[in-house]
Amino acid sequence: MKISKSKSLNNSSIEIEEKQQLRTDEFLIENLNNCWNFVKVNLVRCRAKFEENPVHNLRVSIRRLLAFLELARGVVNSKDLSRLSKSTKKILKLFNGLRDTQVQLLSIDDLRLTHPVLSEYYFELKTAEQLYISSIKEQLMLVDLLTLEGFIFFLKFAIKNNPILNSIPLERLSEPILANYHIILERISQVKREEPDTIHKVRLAFKNFRYMLEIMQPVINLPKEKLRLIKNFQTTMGNIQDCTVFLDGLTSHIFTSNSIPAIAYNTIIEEIISNRSRLIDEFIEICYNPEFFKNNFLLPAY
Questions:
Q1: Calpha distance 170→174 (Å, rounded)
Q2: What is the reported pLDDT for 216?
Q3: 116-140 pLDDT tens trace
Q4: Where does the pLDDT of residue 14 fall: very low under 50, low under 70, confident under 90, or very high at 90 and above?
Q5: Helix (H, G, I), strand (E, B) or coil at 214
């Protein structure tokens, strides 16, 4: 889809001039450097000291790099782009189990004083957390930074030596955002209230959508209020997923543990389900208001 440059630029003549002066190759190189440096710094920090902040920042930085690569894929033809994407996705997947475990631990921290029945599951999760941490630390040490640096080098080379790249307007880089937006709409149409996994699929697409918007912000110049709404919507979906992970994990624990009767967990199970139901109501309210969704989440150019 061709994007109307006049629609996507801000009415301010100063901002238009600044955007016209920004070359496509320079924009790509600058963002690639920023994204990769963020990944590398946090990977080194995780290797040195495995703590909550560098772990969180590493996961975020990898997602941001992957979002950038998706934006660049539309104008840059490079095998190294695909190789870098595949390699960093493998690193990101290392944290899935740990993330789910720590989400549940945080939930129990808020509940175990009023629901002491959760203590047994809490200590089970703490054991699992340490096992995940030990495994991830070992695997992070095996990540070949030199190979990843090589992918970055040759990707930059492909960008700098593309003779037609600077004839492509910066706004064209936003096209994957529109494609991602339509994926979000399609997944929303498939949402079933009684199947939270359908909401999680929306969340995954929306997370990528948000990171791409943030990368393209110097070009598309979305109002801060829209960015805030986008973040809040993603947070709501994240909270729904956290409830689902907690509910699934606790249910599995109940079935495998014989030391505490299942009936003892009924109250906390009802609370989790009630909280998730409230969050799903918030999600559905937004999704059933297409004008609100379109006006706040879609780019001005479309």
A1: 8
A2: 92
A3: 999 999 999 999 999 999 999 999 9
A4: very low
A5: helix
| Inside any domain, residue 64 | yes
Query: Would you list the DSSP string of 76-99?
Result: ---HHHHHHHHHHHHHHHTTHHHH
What is the number of structural domains in the chain? Answer: 1
Write out pLDDT tens, residues 36-81. Answer: 999 999 999 999 999 989 999 999 999 999 999 999 998 998 999 9
What residues make up the domain containing 66?
5-297
Tell me which DSSP letter residue 263 carries.
Answer: G
What is the chain's length?
302
The answer to whether 244 and 276 are in contact (CB under 8 A) is yes
Task: Give residue 8's pLDDT.
Answer: 36
**Does any domain span residue 302?**
no
Nearest Cα neighbor of 176 from 47, 17, 61, 302 is: 302
Q: What is the DSSP string of 149-175?
A: HHHHHHHHHHHHT-TTGGGS-GGGGGH
Do the beta carbons of residue 108 and residue 125 sit within 8 Å? yes
For the CA atoms of 258, 259, 263, 267, the dihedral, rounded to the nearest 10 degrees, stands at -130
Burial bucket for residue 182 (CB in 10 Å: 0-12, 13-18, 19+): exposed
Query: Does the pLDDT at position 264 exceed 90?
Result: yes
Mean per-residue pLDDT, 187-205: 93
pLDDT value, residue 156: 96
Q: Examine residue 174 and state whether it is found in any structural domain, yes or no.
A: yes
d(CA 30, CA 243) in angstroms, rounded, equals 38
Q: Report if residue 214 sits inside a domain.
A: yes
CATH code for position 94 = 1.40.20.10
Residue 212: Cβ-neighbour burial (10 angstroms; 0-12, 13-18, 19+): buried
